[in-house]
């Protein structure tokens, strides 16, 4: 796992998603202390936000490309 918040910000979508899946698996497996569970949950929240940012950026790129294609078709 990546350790610092700065390192988290550098993760691409696929790595953030994969790490999020790992975090969820650990939480679902149970057997963790309350403190360990909270730390993993916080990490999962941070990873989910990173994934959301990447997806929002991808969505914006698609919308921009579609708008440009539509504009070109109207000429």
Automatic annotation (TrEMBL):
Keywords: Cytoplasm, Exonuclease, Hydrolase, Nuclease. Its EC number is 3.1.11.6. GO terms for cellular component: cytosol; exodeoxyribonuclease VII complex. Its main location: cytoplasm. One of its GO terms (molecular function) is exodeoxyribonuclease VII activity. It catalyses: Exonucleolytic cleavage in either 5'- to 3'- or 3'- to 5'-direction to yield nucleoside 5'-phosphates. It is found in: Cytoplasm. The keyword Hydrolase applies. InterPro entries: Exonuc_VII_S, Exonuc_VII_ssu_sf. One of its GO terms (biological process) is DNA catabolic process. It is an enzyme of class 3 (hydrolase). The keyword Cytoplasm applies. Bidirectionally degrades single-stranded DNA into large acid-insoluble oligonucleotides, which are then degraded further into small acid-soluble oligonucleotides. Belongs to the XseB family. Heterooligomer composed of large and small subunits. HAMAP family: Exonuc_7_S (MF_00337). This is Exodeoxyribonuclease 7 small subunit. It comes from Labedaea rhizosphaerae. The gene is xseB.
């Amino acid at each position: 796992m990546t350790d610092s918040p700065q390192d988290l910000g550098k993760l691409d979508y696929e790595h953030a998603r994969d790490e999020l899946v790992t975090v969820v698996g650990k939480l679902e497996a149970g057997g963790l202390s309350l403190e360990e569970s909270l730390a993993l949950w916080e990490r999962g929240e941070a990873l989910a936000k990173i994934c959301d940012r990447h997806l929002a950026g991808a969505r914006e790129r698609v919308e921009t490309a579609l708008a440009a294609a539509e504009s070109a078709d109207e000429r």
